[in-house]
Design brief:
Elements lengths: L17 H13 L3 H8 L3 H7 L1
Helix pairs in contact: 1-2, 2-3
């Protein structure tokens, strides 16, 4: 019997280029909420806070 691994493997992480990050930060500046911008982009709000 084999054990299942939980969580995503490191090589399956999404990588974002500088252009996407810049666009995401512009959206944060345009909207009043980082969380709202993250919802629009479909990413975790913590990621946007990290990029700021």
């Amino acid at each position: 019997m084999t054990a299942k691994k939980s969580g995503a493997s490191p090589d399956k992480r999404r990588k974002y280029d500088a252009a996407f990050k810049a666009e995401a930060l512009c959206r944060v500046d345009e909207s009043c909420s980082t969380q709202a911008a993250a919802r629009e982009l479909g990413i975790n709000p913590k990621l946007l806070y990290h990029w700021q």
